[in-house]
Design a protein that fits this description.
715 residues; mainly beta; Immunoglobulin-like; nine-stranded mixed β-sheet; 45 strands; globular; disordered N terminus
């Protein structure tokens, strides 16, 4: 009945005149060859900027789909033998209202005015490079694979931009050396190109091509073309990134001891599409500490990868068993119990040959913390088929002197943006098996089949997966095993005309995960969420209300916190949730959530809140989460607190202070990071990490002070 009511309400709220947005014909823009020098100051005063052809016909994707942009944008592409230059005239009738809060490298651009450019240099409707600039001159870049299914923000190119803000708007000059891009060895290039501008005070998003609400900018198959690039070559075959790090460390009760390390990476371009990377004595001293969490579930927590070396090519090794069953999880390399294990060295090969995508990595770690010296290797191959689809396989290997674990898997994905004419559809399957020394491998399987159709008005997902009891991906991550799972989600996002304040509604009649024990076929867990109403406002604010239903069967007790256990039994319980947030682009923004209801043998009330201040060069945020659990006669309260302060002196020098505390560990942690970019591609870090005991009198437990310099050379 709830599903029927939600579907009926969806059709009632549809605008009466709704029709599919019509797309203009695919356009092309010609790059203009130059011999003069371009100075990156944002003034756009070199003669070539006025002589070259330009693009200016941007169309709204939001808020008024299909309408011309309310502010003029003009873009020009220039090039010489080594560099691609992009000039942007982002005119603005109210320049004092431009929103730009971020100034650091790889900034968060979701709430700033910005200009985005995506280039698919192989014109393959799949993969590309995304470059983003905001009015402060902050830059960010992303490696795009499979039309946005792979979105690697941790990829870093060597490029720069200059920006000037005047009473007419903001103006950009971008320089991207061709050595950062892989492209065919053709005399004349044809690249897929699309561009997007965001005017945040209006919540206006305009695109050059593909402005249907069903397509994001990363939908490269909807892009236009960049033509006219002649006689360019990727001439830089070698990239050298040596580093040196030094510092001191004092652990509680021990003497201060010094730390020193030297190593680096060497990259060799085998072809325009293939790069070989060597790493020696790899160092991660600049990486920020994990965010600590109080675990109130019976399953292990997942911590994201933060180390640049493993983040750079992560999309190539993605295999679709799902987030809770990953065949390759790079934190298994160089970490044991979340403590660092030395990485002696290794190599990585990434790239493309014809229509074949290849990722290969082998890493050797040293002995530490009881861990033997171990080799970790992974091979991932994906073959492009049809227009946007692929088939592939993966092999992983973890091996030391007395133990081995292997895994192999095959997968296939069919993807199209032409279902019913112009809708998105993804269908896929994945199958894998593990082989572990001295273990039963006859029932060590994992597989998944899925269907996903994510479009503006209707979103639908369905997946069926199975993980058997002996499946053991030692280079991967398993949240749980020995299960069969069925999951589905349906959401409607109508845009009713009679609610002028609403950008769209969110109506979710079903979001379900259903787990069966793989051996007994008995129900083991169940989760259901119903969202009767969510509203995203035209102001950028958001609020939603959810009703949740849970089931969990416990065959053995598990500890929550403080020696309080949930006993064996079967549990049905319901919870309710309200979430809301204000627009992050404002000088002050808030996020808050409240949930309440039953929890196993008792009740649980959870409150989470975040406040942020956006003050231009100085940004600050603080968050707090509290849980009150009533379990029989016991009343337990947990607190988790985090703060972050960021100050950018300019786009090449910025500092971050991150602090966190929770009352389960009774330890406060502070991380100070100073990052200086002395030249594009080179980095200097100064790092201070401290841990304090908060039991009784505040006292220092551990202190580490480190500096690290990485210098970039290309030949």
């Amino acid at each position: 009945m709830k599903i029927v009511l939600s579907i009926s309400l969806f059709f009632l709220l549809l605008p009466k005149h709704y029709a599919l947005a019509q797309q203009k014909e695919i356009s092309s823009l010609r790059a203009y060859q130059i011999s003069e020098k371009i100075i990156l100051d944002g003034e756009l005063d070199e003669p070539a900027w006025q002589q070259a052809p330009f693009a200016s016909d941007f169309i709204q994707r939001e808020l008024n789909n299909g309408q011309p942009a309310t502010e003029e944008t003009r873009v020009v592409f220039l090039y010489d033998a080594s560099t691609l230059y992009i000039g942007v005239w982002a005119y603005d009738s109210q320049p004092d209202e431009i929103i730009a809060k971020e100034s650091k490298r790889d900034f968060r651009w979701g709430s700033d005015d910005n200009f985005e450019i995506i280039l698919s240099t192989f014109n393959d409707n799949r993969n590309g490079y995304l470059f983003v600039v905001n009015p402060n001159g902050a830059i960010a870049d992303v490696l795009i694979t499979d039309e946005g299914a792979g979105f690697n923000k941790d990829w870093n190119a060597v490029w720069d931009a200059g920006v000037e803000v005047t009473d007419k708007g903001w103006f950009v000059e971008i320089a991207i050396p061709f050595s950062n891009l892989k492209f065919p060895e053709d005399d004349e290039q044809i690249w897929a190109l699309n561009m997007e501008r965001n005017i945040r005070r209006k919540n206006e998003q305009v695109l050059w091509q593909g402005w249907s609400r069903d397509y994001e900018l990363e939908k490269i198959s909807q892009a236009g073309k960049l033509v006219g690039l002649k006689g360019i070559h990727n001439r830089k075959f070698w990239e050298l990134k040596p580093f040196v790090s030094t510092g001191v460390e004092q652990l509680r009760g021990r003497r201060i001891h010094s730390k020193y390390k030297i190593g680096g990476d060497v990259n060799y371009l085998l072809s325009p599409k293939m790069k070989l990377n060597f790493t020696v004595n790899t160092d991660f001293s600049q990486v920020e500490s994990d965010r600590e969490q109080i675990n109130l579930s019976r399953f292990s927590l997942f911590f994201p990868e933060k180390r640049d070396f493993f983040l750079e090519g992560k999309n190539l090794f993605r295999f679709n068993l799902g987030r809770s069953a990953q065949t390759f999880y790079s934190r298994q390399i160089g970490l044991a119990d979340r403590k660092e294990v030395p990485v002696l060295g290794g190599l990585r090969l990434t790239g493309k040959k014809g229509r074949t995508n290849l990722g290969l990595m082998t890493i050797q770690t040293g002995k530490k913390r009881g861990e033997p010296s171990t080799n970790f290797s992974v091979v991932r191959v994906k073959q492009d088929v049809l227009e946007n689809s692929n088939v592939g396989f993966i092999v992983t290997s973890r091996k030391d002197k007395g133990h081995y674990n292997f895994l192999y898997g095959v997968d296939a994905n069919y993807s199209t943006s032409k279902m019913f004419g112009n809708k998105n559809l993804d269908v896929g399957i994945a199958f894998s098996q593990s082989i572990t020394q001295d273990s039963s491998n006859s029932n060590a399987l994992g597989y998944r089949a899925y269907l996903s159709s994510i479009n503006d008005l209707v979103e639908y997902d369905l997946s069926v997966s199975r993980i058997t009891k002996d499946f053991n991906p030692e280079m991967g991550y398993l949240r749980r095993k020995n299960y069969k799972r069925i999951a589905t989600e349906l959401q409607f996002n109508p845009r009713p005309d009679f609610l002028p304040f609403a950008r769209n509604l969110e109506l979710k009649p079903i979001d379900m995960s259903y787990y069966l024990n793989d051996e007994t076929n008995e129900m083991e867990s169940f989760f259901y969420e119903w969202r009767p109403l969510g509203i995203e406002f035209k102001t950028g604010d958001f609020i939603e209300f959810n009703v949740q239903r849970f089931y969990d069967k416990l065959d053995e007790p598990f500890e929550l916190i403080e020696q309080n256990f949930i006993p064996v039994g079967t549990y049905w319980y319901s919870r309710y949730e309200v979430q809301g947030s204000t627009y992050r682009g404002r000088p002050v923004f808030f996020r808050q959530s409240l949930s309440w209801g039953d929890f196993y043998t008792g009740q649980r009330e959870e409150v989470a809140a975040q406040i942020g201040w956006n003050l231009g060069k100085f940004n600050m945020s603080a968050d707090w989460q509290r849980n009150i659990l009533k379990l029989g006669q016991a009343k337990l309260t947990t607190h988790e607190v985090g703060t972050r302060l960021e100050f950018a002196f300019n786009t090449h020098l910025y500092t971050t202070l991150f602090g966190q505390w929770n009352n389960e560990d009774d330890i406060a942690r502070l991380d100070l990071r100073v990052n200086w970019i002395p030249k594009t591609g080179s980095y200097f870090y100064f790092v201070v990490n401290q841990e304090y005991s908060t039991v009784g009198t505040l006292s220092v437990l551990n202190t580490t002070v480190l500096s690290k310099l990485t210098w970039f050379f290309s030949v």
